Amino acid sequence: MRKSMFLGSAVALLFSVSSMAENIHFPEEFVPLQVGERIIESSLFSRVDDVELAPGTYQLRLKYTDLYEDDYDTHEVVESEPFWVEVTVEAGKDYALVFNRANNAISAKVFAEAPEVGLKAKNSSLAVPLDIISNKELAREMPVKQMVNKPVVSQRVEQSVSTAPNNDKGIPSAAGMLDFWWQQATPEQQKAFLNKVKK
């Protein structure tokens, strides 16, 4: 009897905790990078499509990236610089980030310069346009501690990846990525790697 009561309580608690968080779904063309000061970890092989947030207002850092076919055999990757938007999440609602996808790479490049996105509640026909937050506005809204902690790694990552030589498909080269990860490693990690390579 006690065991079944305990299990029932645990299940009820699990459902009540998961129901307190609302979900935002991101289309494949948008990568969520950050919520406030919390960095969202993702990679080419483990993409983040959904972010769960408790009701409230948040600053989200996003990046637009899309692939367009040039000719029969070639493709072009179009990307934006990372940008911030402010979203308000209401209790009991799940959302999707929406945008008007460009028909070709030229239009996509124009969109990447000034992305326009909206937040649409599930089962709603209207999307709420999201304003892009400038860096000055962000500095005013985020506490000093967050601004000190946030940019150092992310700027270095963006600079290294954007300056890494790309192959003909727009993907960073192996040499560029090796250089990037070497710069991220601590001196101890670099030494351990060199020892491993020498064996």
Class by alpha and beta content: alpha+beta
Oligomer: single chain
Cα-based radius of gyration, to the nearest Å: 21 Å
Order of helix and strand elements from N to C terminus = HEEEEEEEEHEEEHHHHH
Q: How would you sum up the global shape? A: globular
Give unreliable regions as ranges: 3-7, 9-18, 144-164
Written overview of the protein:
The strands form two sheets. Strands 2, 3, 5, 6, 7 and 11 form a six-stranded antiparallel beta sheet that branches. A five-stranded mixed beta sheet has the order 4-1-8-9-10, with no helix packed on it. With 199 residues, the chain is of the alpha+beta class. The chain has helices at residues 2-19, 105-113, 135-141, 144-149, 151-163, 174-184, 187-198; strands at residues 22-25, 30-35, 38-39, 50-53, 56-69, 75-79, 83-89, 95-98, 117-121, 127-130, 132-133. The protein is 38% helix and 29% strand. Helix 5 runs antiparallel to helix 6 (174-184).
Topology:
Elements: H1 2-19, E1 22-25, E2 30-35, E3 38-39, E4 50-53, E5 56-69, E6 75-79, E7 83-89, E8 95-98, H2 105-113, E9 117-121, E10 127-130, E11 132-133, H3 135-141, H4 144-149, H5 151-163, H6 174-184, H7 187-198
Care to give the gist of this entry?
The protein is α+β, with helices and mostly antiparallel strands and 199 residues long.
Which terms would index this structure?
five-stranded mixed β-sheet, alpha+beta, 7 helices, 11 strands, globular, 199 residues
